[in-house]
Amino acid sequence: MSLGIRIFLVYVLFIGLTGYFVLNTVMEEIRPGVRQSTEETLVDTANLMAEILRDDFKAGTLNQNRWPELLKAYGERQPKASIWGLAKNQVNHRIYVTDANGIVVLDSSGVAVGQDYSRWNDVLLTLRGEYGARSSRSDPSDANSSVMHVGAPIRENGQIIGVVTVAKPNSSLQPYVDRTERRLLAYGAGLIGLGLLFGALLSWWLSAALRRLTAYAQAVSEGRRVEVPHYRGGEMEQLATAVEHMRTQLEGKAYVERYVHTLTHELKSPLAAIRGAAELLQGEMPLAQRQRFVSNIDSESVRMQQLIERLLNLAQVEQRQGLEERVGVPLAALVDELLSAQAARIEGKQLRVERAIPVDLELMGEPFLLRQALGNLLENALDFTPANGLLRFGAKRVGEQIEFRLFNLAETIPEYALPRLSERFYSLPRPDSGRKSTGLGLNFVEEVVKLHGGTLSIGNVEGGVEVVISMA
User: Fold this and answer.
1) Right CATH number for 3-178 from 3.40.50.970, 3.60.15.10, 3.40.640.10, 3.30.450.20?
2) Which sequence ranges are marked TM in the entry (predicted)?
3) CATH second-level architecture of 252-319?
């Protein structure tokens, strides 16, 4: 299981448990909270009615005036109110009055007059001077039929002479409780969903960042040229910087060791030739022979210089992970510049040069490296092209790629040598001198092409050899 999935699962567990605990706690508090608010309203209403009815109750005229008709009319009212989107079309309060003995003397419902309510807590406790309230079921078998009753004392000279009770069925509150619970569940589910989405995005981002860094480390371990991933601050950027620094340190150490070994090995032969020629020159010999040994020393010195320069150029390219600049390089003008630089060799061999490169065709890349790479290709082609031979340059756009071709009239390259032409220090004998080059030119060209994201291929074609470079 990937790290991102594990992080997401832990996040889901945390959000799920937190959401369940919070929602469950709030849901359990909704119903008691609504009932407490309603009970507080009933207390105010009961005390208000106790004051309004006190004088008529003291006079014993509750049933002789308009109170029964008023309470009956109250029970028949239809408010047609809309409370938070819920319709209220009837009143739900029941009001009854009991005397000091708990006998009902007035009832808005008209069903309990004359009955003994002295054992109900709303009457019993109020007559004792305590807070009288109760919740009783109107239907013992129906849990949803409970009714809240709140009593308030009717006083005369500090004595309790009666009780006014205001009752309200809990069922009238249920629509508001249900609506609140639905809205809370909807909002809670939405917040949990947003939290999970955020967690998924966070896990995806973290996994993607780690995958990029892992791919970079894998590519480095395989020797491929890749750029270090870039992050915007934080621990991921520090980790990427640390990995890149480690790669640079390790590669640098291995690179120096390899190049020191290579340079030592490659310099042995020219140094031995120079030393041998120098020892022979210390003795007496004919002038012609002396000049031949001096020429050998000069040619071997040039060979060592070329070897060192090309190794330095190759090392510079191999150590780079990207281009320092990427600009449009006019291909036709670059080829003309290279041909002008090699004009002496071309004229000396009386070579024919053909060019088929559109003037407006441009390669996107680093001008200095492209000039060095194409210059090496031209030098290599001149080494193998016989006198009166042919050089043919061509380039065209193929889709999003630019395809550059260099053909030179030459002998067929042996099959065994084709896969090794761009291998470091591998070289074929030059037809004119029979000597091999440093074997670094084509390797340098291949590194430059790879740095530009392109490909290099060399093969035999009819009449000679053709090099093909494809780059954006």
Assistant:
1) 3.30.450.20
2) 6-27, 184-206
3) Orthogonal Bundle (1.10)
Report the distance separating Cα 22 and Cα 19, nearest Å.
5
Length of the chain: 472
How much is the mean pLDDT over the chain? Answer: 81
Q: 295-333 as b/e, with b when 16 or more CB fall inside 10 Å?
A: ebbeebeebbeebeebbebbeebbeeeeeeeeeebbbbe
Q: Are 136 and 149 in contact (CB under 8 A)?
A: yes
- 136-174 pLDDT, tens digit per residue, is 888 888 877 889 999 999 998 889 999 999 999 888 877
pLDDT (0 to 100) of residue 255: 46
Angle between helices 367-384 and 441-451 (to 10 degrees): 150
CA distances 291 to 22, 111, 341, 396, Å, are: 100, 143, 30, 50
State the Cα–Cα distance between residues 329 and 370, nearest whole angstrom: 9
Distances (CA, A) of 469 to 40, 342, 369, 424, 454: 89, 21, 14, 19, 7
Provide the residue type at 204 as one letter. Answer: W
pLDDT at 88 over 60: yes
Can you give the pLDDT at residue 157? 87
For residue range 37-46, list pLDDT tens digits in order: 888 999 999 9
What pTM, to 2 d.p., does this model score? Answer: 0.44
Return the domain boundaries, the chain: 3-178, 252-319, 327-471
Q: Identify whether the C-beta of residue 396 lies closer than 8 Å to the C-beta of residue 403.
A: yes
